[in-house]
Design the sequence.
């Protein structure tokens, strides 16, 4: 994977109550990632950018909500989300890298 | 809490205060927990934000808040503990302010000087003694009559006591000059309002008469181009009027609020007023002497903060007095203008306070009431005045300090030797050279 791709894979941290819980309980960090990103790509990108060792990546495609308006039915944008498990004892601090 | 006090100079003190870290951190933590309950951060429901997020978002802010609060309360504690008496506000600077470390801060402040009022036993005060004689009374009534006098037109030559109504136009070297013309001007012939010599030359004129008046403008005349010039005024006398003083009858008495009792009551009333005024003036004169002596005899350093406060107050007063526009920035006036007066007033205030403390003086209810009743005497409806003063908190405080001041002066008077000096009413009532600047 070339250097350019690394900066294109990760779109940002996904901050939510669930993300906070899994960070505490499983040392997992949640990212929004590019729609075409693969698990190995994500693993490499996180390892390169945050200097941690990644033990696992799960991904999920979040579908956009369908919204009905007077003009008919619309659909919001979906996105791809990755749960990245980090080796015990290591952590990612989003504060510096948002 | 550890406190150490250094004296840097004269009245300035540096107070270094240490507060244990645990105390601060605990307070910060508590405050953060409170914030967490209501904080809103995207991605979390209200109140569900994890502490780590809250700490990152609000930590510094909350800490600064807590620290400034702690500094304020601890400063007050330290002051009471060390029995310092601060004048004005301190300058507080945190020297060590980090989480986990003891907070250390330095407060720089000025303290009130220890004022000890020296004895005034060797001071001799001149106290004017005067009484209102019948002559003085007659003179006063004459003045009152003159104030109410009317002018009646008469058909005869004007005398010095008369008033003439004139048109005039002034010429210098045959040319009219600006401001030298008027019509229908009322001029009292002994009033001294015009250029010297002008009025005297009109004595003996009659209504309808025209006369040229030759005068020389004095050297210190206010208009530059007219100073020292000779001028001719063409004057036309329209009217000659004679002053008519009102009769001493009930109508006249009524003007001064004496409804019944006639001459007798009127004289008594006037006399009472004069006596009151006399008493007041004598009191002020004596007080002024005491006060000046106090300030002169007691030299001490005065906190700068107090002086600058006083200067600000004086500036405001000055602006009000001279009727500046309401948005006039009082602080634009130079401080040096007020420096001396402010210093004197602050000193006096401190001295007064120390006398009050030393002698354990107190303004009690009865004293205040007596003072107000005295004050109210000269009004139409004394009771109303008394009520007004007694029911107004601010007024009451003013009264209290006035009463205290009076007690201080009395107290000092008892110590000092008082020379009674006999003088006439006129001399006694004359204002002292300097007005009392008593605070």
Sequence:
């Amino acid at each position: 994977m070339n250097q350019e791709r690394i900066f294109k894979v990760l779109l940002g941290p996904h901050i939510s109550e669930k993300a906070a819980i899994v960070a505490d309980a499983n040392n997992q960090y949640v990212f929004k990632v590019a729609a075409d990103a693969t698990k190995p790509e994500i693993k490499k990108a996180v390892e390169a950018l945050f200097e941690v060792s990644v033990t696992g990546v799960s991904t999920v495609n979040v579908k956009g909500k369908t919204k009905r308006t007077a003009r008919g039915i619309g659909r919001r944008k979906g996105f791809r989300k990755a749960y990245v498990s980090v080796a015990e004892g290591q952590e990612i601090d989003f504060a510096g890298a948002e | 809490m550890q406190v150490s006090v250094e004296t840097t100079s004269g009245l300035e003190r540096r107070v270094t205060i240490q507060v244990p870290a645990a105390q601060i951190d605990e307070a910060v933590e508590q405050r953060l927990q409170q914030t967490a309950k209501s904080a809103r951060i995207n991605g979390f429901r209200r109140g569900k934000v994890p502490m780590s997020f809250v700490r990152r978002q609000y930590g510094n802010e909350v800490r600064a808040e807590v620290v400034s609060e702690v500094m304020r309360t601890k400063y007050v504690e330290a002051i009471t503990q060390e029995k310092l008496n601060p004048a004005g506000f301190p300058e507080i600077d945190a020297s060590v302010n980090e989480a986990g470390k003891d907070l250390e801060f330095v407060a720089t402040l000025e303290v009130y000087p220890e004022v000890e009022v020296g004895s005034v036993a060797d001071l001799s005060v001149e106290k004017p003694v005067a009484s209102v004689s019948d002559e003085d009374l007659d003179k006063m009534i004459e003045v009152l009559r003159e104030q109410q006098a009317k002018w009646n037109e008469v058909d005869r030559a004007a005398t010095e006591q008369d008033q003439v109504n004139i048109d005039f136009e002034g010429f210098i070297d045959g040319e009219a000059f600006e401001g030298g013309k008027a019509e229908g001007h009322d001029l009292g012939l002994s009033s001294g309002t015009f250029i010297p010599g002008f009025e005297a030359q009109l004595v003996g004129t009659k209504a309808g008469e025209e006369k040229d008046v030759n005068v020389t403008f004095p050297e210190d005349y206010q208009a530059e181009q007219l100073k020292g010039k000779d001028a001719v005024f063409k004057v036309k006398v329209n009217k000659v009027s004679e002053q008519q003083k009102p009769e001493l009858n009930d109508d006249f008495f009524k003007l001064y609020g004496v409804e019944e009792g006639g001459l007798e009551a009127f004289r008594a009333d006037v006399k009472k007023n004069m006596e009151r005024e006399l008493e007041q003036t004598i009191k002020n004169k004596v007080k002024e002497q005491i006060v000046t002596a106090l300030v002169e005899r007691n030299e001490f350093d005065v906190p700068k903060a107090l002086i600058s406060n006083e200067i600000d107050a004086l500036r405001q007063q000055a602006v009000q007095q001279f009727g500046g526009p309401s948005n006039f920035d009082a602080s634009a006036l130079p401080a040096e203008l007020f420096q001396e007066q402010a210093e004197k007033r602050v000193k006096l205030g401190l001295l007064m306070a120390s006398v009050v403390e030393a002698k354990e003086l107190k303004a009690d209810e009865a004293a205040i009431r007596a003072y107000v009743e005295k004050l109210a005497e000269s009004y139409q409806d004394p009771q109303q005045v008394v009520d007004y003063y007694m029911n107004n908190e601010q007024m009451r405080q003013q009264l209290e300090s006035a009463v205290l001041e009076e007690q201080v002066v009395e107290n000092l008077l008892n110590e000092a030797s008082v020379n009674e000096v006999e003088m006439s009413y006129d001399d006694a009532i004359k204002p002292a050279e300097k007005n009392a600047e008593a605070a």
